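Reopening this one. Same input as before:
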Amino acid sequence: MTKEVLFLRLLNDQRMRLVFLLFAVFVYCDFEYESFIYGKYAYAGFDYEPDGAKSFISYALLLLGLGFFFLKGSRMLKAIAALFFVFLYIPNLVIYQYMELPLGFLLAITLFLLILCNPGRTWVMPKGIVLKKRQHSLFFLGLALLIAIPFFVTYSINWNPKLFLLGELTYVVREASHAGGNPLTTYLFNPLFKVLLPMLIIYGLKERQFYLSALGFGLIMLLFMALPHKNVFFSVFVVLFFYFFKDPLKKVGIFIFGFLLLLIAGKMLVLYQDSLFLESVFYRRFLMLPAYLNIVYYDLFKDIPLFFSHSILSSWVEYPLDLDPSHYVGLQAFNSAATNANNGFFSDGFMNLGMIGPFLFVLLVGWIFKFFDALKIHPMYFGVFFLLVLTLRSSALLTAVVTHGLWALAILSYFILRNSNNRSLLPTKT
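Same output, byte for byte:
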C-alpha cells in the first residue's frame, strides 16, 4: 500500500475525522482557559494554578481516550461516547490542570468512555412483545393525544408570537404557567417533550407518514406557547438535525464541527467586537461551569456523603442539610439559595456515595446505553438519545429515570423501536 493510498484511507476514516475534531475542541478549551475563563471569570470561583505533572496526566488521558475510538465497537455507542467526550471529558481534563479536581473523577470518566467504546459483552434482549409495524401509527397517535390532553386542560395557550423571540416574555409566561400546574402534568412533561413527541416527528418522517410529524411538531409548538421552556423549543431542531445521515459517527462529527465553529466565532466576537456573550454561553457556561461544579460538589460532600437521604432512602437515613442538595450547592457556589445547581449523574454519584459513586454510576449509565444499542434502533432516532445525553449531563441519575423520561424511552424503544434498523448497528464495528 502506497503512502498516498494510506493517507487517503485515513482521511476518509470517520474515526480519524472525529478524533481530530475532539482534539481540536480540547486544544481550544485548554488555550482559552487562562485568557477567557480565568481572565474574565476568576471572580466566579475559577482559579489558574498550572501544574506540569497534572498537565502531563491530562494530555496522557486525552490520548488514551481518543484511542478508544479505534476499538472495534458499536458506531452508535462511539457516537454517544464522542458527545460525552466533548461535554464531560474535555472540560474536566482542562480544569484538572489548573484547579483541585480529584484525579479519580478523570479516571471514572475514562472508564465510562472505555465502556461505551469497548466491543465487549452487551445486553442479550429477552423475547417480548413488539407491536406490529401497522400498529405503530395508531399507537403513537393515540398516546400523544392522550398525554397532551391534561396539558391543554391545565394550561392556557398564549398566542403572543413574541414568545418565539425567547425574550423576557418567555420567563413571565413560564412563571405564570407553573403556578397553575399539577403533579400529573409535572410528571408527564419530560416524557412527552423529550421522548414521545420527538419520536413521533422522526417516525412520521421515516415512514413518510408526514401527518404524524406535523402533529408532533404542532403539539410541541402549541404546548411551548403554554409552557415556554427553551429546551422544548430547541429539541425539535435537535431531533431534526440528527435525522439526517445514516452513520451515527458522521452525525456527531458534523455536530462537533459546528460546535467548534461556534466556539471559534465566540472568540472572534471577543477579539473584534468585545462581545462575551457567545463564548460565555457555549464555552464557559455549557462546558466549563459543570466541570467547576464537580469541584464544588467534591469540596462540599467529600466529608458528608448523602447516601440518598434526600430521595429514596429518606425514611432510613437522616438528611444533614437545611436545603435540598442542588440549592445548597447554589448557595455555596453562587451565594444564592434560589439557584438550582444540578450537575448531572457524575456529581450525583459522588454526592451520594463518595468516590465510589462516580465509578458505580458510569457503569450503570454505560450499561443503559448498551441496552439501547442492543435494541438495534434506526440511527434516524439518534436525536432522541442526544437529548438523553443532555439530560444525564444535567440531572441526577434517579431523576433522569423517574421524572425526565428515561423510563418512557426504555419502554417505547423496547416495544416500538426495537429492530427498526434493518441494518443492525452492531455488526458495523470499526
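So the earlier flakiness isn't reproducible anymore. For the record, DSSP finds 18 helices and no strands in the chain.
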